[in-house]
Amino acid sequence: MRLGCRSAPVKQNRQDPVQEVGMFRNKMPRYEILSEDAMSKLDAGWRRIVTEIGVEFDSERALTLFREAGQKVEGQNVFFDPEWILEQVALAPREFDVQARNPEHSIHIGGDAMAFGAVYGPPFVREGDVRRDATMNDFERFAKLAQVFPVLDSAGGVICEPNDTPLDSRHLDMTYALQTLTDKVYMGNVVSGVNARDTIRMGEILFGGREAIEQTPVSISLINCNSPLHWDDRMLESLFEYTLAGQPCVVTPFILMGAMSPVTIPAALVQQIAEALTGIALTQLIRPGAPVIFGSFLSNIDMQSGSPTFGTPESGIGLLCTGQIARHFGLPFRSGGGLTSSQVADAQAGYEALMTMLPTFLAGANWVMHSAGWLEGGLVAGFEKFIVDVEILQMMQAEFTPLEIDEDSLAFGAHLEVGHGGHFLGAMHTMERFRTCFYRPLLSSSENYERWMRNGSLDTNARASKTYQAKLEEYVAPPLDDAVRLELEEYVVRRRAELGD
Amino acid sequence: MRLGCRSAPVKQNRQDPVQEVGMFRNKMPRYEILSEDAMSKLDAGWRRIVTEIGVEFDSERALTLFREAGQKVEGQNVFFDPEWILEQVALAPREFDVQARNPEHSIHIGGDAMAFGAVYGPPFVREGDVRRDATMNDFERFAKLAQVFPVLDSAGGVICEPNDTPLDSRHLDMTYALQTLTDKVYMGNVVSGVNARDTIRMGEILFGGREAIEQTPVSISLINCNSPLHWDDRMLESLFEYTLAGQPCVVTPFILMGAMSPVTIPAALVQQIAEALTGIALTQLIRPGAPVIFGSFLSNIDMQSGSPTFGTPESGIGLLCTGQIARHFGLPFRSGGGLTSSQVADAQAGYEALMTMLPTFLAGANWVMHSAGWLEGGLVAGFEKFIVDVEILQMMQAEFTPLEIDEDSLAFGAHLEVGHGGHFLGAMHTMERFRTCFYRPLLSSSENYERWMRNGSLDTNARASKTYQAKLEEYVAPPLDDAVRLELEEYVVRRRAELGD
């Protein structure tokens, strides 16, 4: 019998309550690049790490749980029995739901479901030629953009740092904005256990109490490992709070190869497995059956400058492997996004974002953070880049939709109608389908040169600038019950005072 | 016994003479998206087209060959027995070599080999903000860039139209430039049978006579279908000339869905099979065993404007299917490239180029035209875009290199050295590998913001401009025997006079 602060198992809602009006299901094959032999070598690798090197947990609560579960604890370091880890991991659900306050925006995590959230964490924003500290106004405008585009399932969490709000109560402002400006799934704050408890409490207010959010979770929270092989105190505090409340965490090794892991991809992969699985094992000690997501944030540094780099070949390979590994362990996984090192929404930003996003779809990532707006290695949330990424995301969803091959789509009759060397523009088969047959771009231009010149010879960045401004105009606040809004506001005001801001 | 202008079978050189110093072999798995059921529906589809609708050949020579081979000819239209087509197709080699005058640049076509050529066909060029008619000077500079970058196996053929040279003898100037400024494989001219014969003759001069080029071909030529279902006279004239000389043609349905085919992808695929296989069957009537490549140029139009669009989800799906189809028929195939509709080398150019290039690698295309420099739907050859594409190509080759998972790459010792929460920058394992462990960008920037600002805050297009200019400075003319050069020059002068220019 394991003890500790573990509460009752989460009741998994086996009946999918999600209406999934907008949610994407990836029915295309996964691109799997690891042979059975390769997988077994990686498997031996993480076992060796957890057995011989161990993983540090900067948390007495965690260490107590591990000790009680029979794992060998020396100081903060825990040496694991790999078989025990796998037993714990097997307690986690393979798939689960997360509810949004608009049921049409609720999502499913796992299987062939893919959900997409906006960029998370940047202290700066870029609009056109201006790069500056992010503000609450920026945060709100990004939240509105995430609400406007159906291709995004979530505005994410810290879309950008609202530097003009008080630090200690900022989590209240962000959570309130996410809950009120959008009716989609949102991410929890993880700066401290206090912040986590506030986020959970605000979820209870919005969704009708503790039982409702434990029944089907309402937030997803990002718990990063202090890689290599160290879980720090504040992250673990948040992990405890969310897991106890049945709210899923994304247990994420944060690896820039060459800095937080060895420079070789296999080494990074086994380290990632060791870190993720030990974190996930902890969640199942805290609350058996708690929903949890195998996280991956895996790229590399530039070995000349030490700068982080994104959209690299190495990160692409890592992503493809990670998907296969997560499936191997039967866990939903987080990876991918529209990552780039580029300072502006230029060609590099375009190809690096797709260098990450296309493998994201090939790997079938279930929860995709940083899907829109990421610039400059994650330091900047870019308004123009947000639109570039939405375009890429829409294209990917169109591309990863299986072909229907039938008498109708084979269109034999159209050939009879058109004949040799003719054209199909006016054919009946075309006329019946021309509105929906191809993906219609949001941003990309195929204007001929003369028309493009007449329209101001705007490059993609300049067009994206017009697009995000127009889309903000289209924003309509999703309805919210006045009493609920008032209760949320009162909570924010009270807690802000209590936190001394 | 089949008659016609067929010559003796090409002796396939079974021993690979290629040194492949720079050639890329794609050892990663193919991404196959068509189920067996889907493939059999497509198979039934092309059979129905060639049987019931037929394919037109605007060439008496071709019609005679088909008639003599027992196919039903009505006017210019040929109704085929699909089984007979497959017998013909089976005569074509699955793989073959193409020699370059520098043996280190010779290439292999088929299997896991992938060869890359520059953009082909644009009448215009773009340098920075200037878009203008292409000239011979542009052609030569692009040829030099293709020579400089090892990632390119060929400068292609009509890299851009040298509009300042006489039309009737332009093919001589281009072939001479390709043969002398580069020592890589080049493409043949296909404007007419006359041009094809000149190209072949110049190949004989460069490579030591007819027997030498028949033994191992020295050029690859692009033969487009006038889709739907019509092969025109001039293209077929060139097809005859090259095939008789044992020079491979890329038999390519030219399909923009919605214009040259129905709007549905399955219909485009079966049309593509019907067109390609009938053209390939013809090559095997002309010369059994002649090397030939299954070609694909498959994208769609914008149904609102009628403009061609590239890097679309539909073209990506088409490309993935095409690879699978070509393998189904046991043929090497051409597809892919760095296609885009964008007017400049901006974000759209970046993501659209990769939207085509990543599926090109997933599909394992064997001969990849338009790998560098394509802009504005192929109307423009862009100097900056050339550099963007080379960067993408280099990244792809790095990404599609299988992982080595062994004791060394698992780097257990590095963990022992670094410990929990440390960093690997100075670890022995890192120091031994830091120069080569990650892909080093040609163009992409991961500079921090302050350094990027100090360096002029150049976007990718501006950096690419500096790069191509610097690379042109690095160009060194590959050595060429004076007597051969003189013979080529005399041929060009004589033929120009004969052609009346």
From TrEMBL, chains A, B:
One of its GO terms (biological process) is methylation. It holds the Pfam family MTTB. Its EC number is 2.1.1.-. InterPro entries: MTTB_MeTrfase (IPR010426). It is an enzyme of class 2 (transferase). Keywords: Methyltransferase, Transferase. GO terms for molecular function: methyltransferase activity. Belongs to the trimethylamine methyltransferase family. This is Methyltransferase. It comes from Nocardioides panacis. The lineage of its organism: Bacteria, Bacillati, Actinomycetota, Actinomycetes, Propionibacteriales.
